[in-house]
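note to self: dont lose this again. the chain is below, predicted strucutre after it. 352 aa total, dont forget to put it in the shared folder this time
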Amino acid sequence: MKRALITGVNGQDGSYLAELLLEKGYKVYGLMRRKSKVDYGNVEHLKNEIEFIYGDMTDPISLINAMRVSQADEVYNLAAQSFVGTSWEQPIATAQIDALGVTNILEAIRTVKPKAKFYQASTSEMFGLVQEIPQKETTPFYPRSPYGVAKLYGHWITKNYRESYNMFACSGILFNHESERRGKEFVTRKITDAVARIKLGVQDRLELGNMEAKRDWGHAEDYVKAMWLMLQQDNPDDYVVASGETHKVREFVELAFKHVGIEIEWIGEGVDEKGIDKKTGKVVVSVNPKFFRPAEVDILLGDPSKAKEKLGWKREISFEELVKRMVEADLRRVKEEVNFNEYMKETASTIE
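---
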């Protein structure tokens, strides 16, 4: 039985990866930060199948302990301060986790089990001010956020350990991958959650920043398969994992609303632009400058040719299907929330 250690196991990617590895017969260990209240997050349904180890990416001793306990054959480093917007507000914390944290886990592997295979979650945000379109493994990097800069350090230190110590260390340069398990602070979940609430009458409007930004979106369930495939190769290497398509934030908004029967008509320009429900004339989308980034990444479009050719990986869930799944999941969640609130009101009035 292979053993795997996943950092960030209770996040979106960690949960899908844990499911995949358990299906393949792995013994799965998950690194989890100690809190006053245990929070299994997206792996609540797997809490009896995963062995959890308390640790922190900024604490090298805890990572060495995690390696000693797990004796992992494969280590997947998915832990990160992963919200780009927060990286401007917390640049030092972002660097400590997303940059130095990678060095900490690599040193833990080198100390305890240097033959273990290592996967580093790199990001398309490292391309930032893109130097060519589409972006591939050889495209020069130009990060435009503290998050992108920190991730670039993690990417290069992984390559450095591979070349310096002959470690099996890979980086997956993953473009935007979303799912029903994505946090609400990310624009995709913010959109689908708001669409569900507007449709069910519990929210009036969705506020966004730059709707002209273009992203290459895929589903996380597809992308974790590429992570696993990288560590099954004979030799370590780095790979771009992407859909090969790019869509504006505006397109995501239109498709999400369309799925609940609302057609959006746009009026105005720039910060004055608004999205109107064509049927009712009601404003349901508006621009709020506070959501603009200090330095914007205008377009991301990945070339996954190498991953397709060498790993045999391919995307199975389309952009349209991704949006559909997210909207439907949020509709179910919001309906349950509304029903619960109505039940509590009825209960309270009965008691009175």
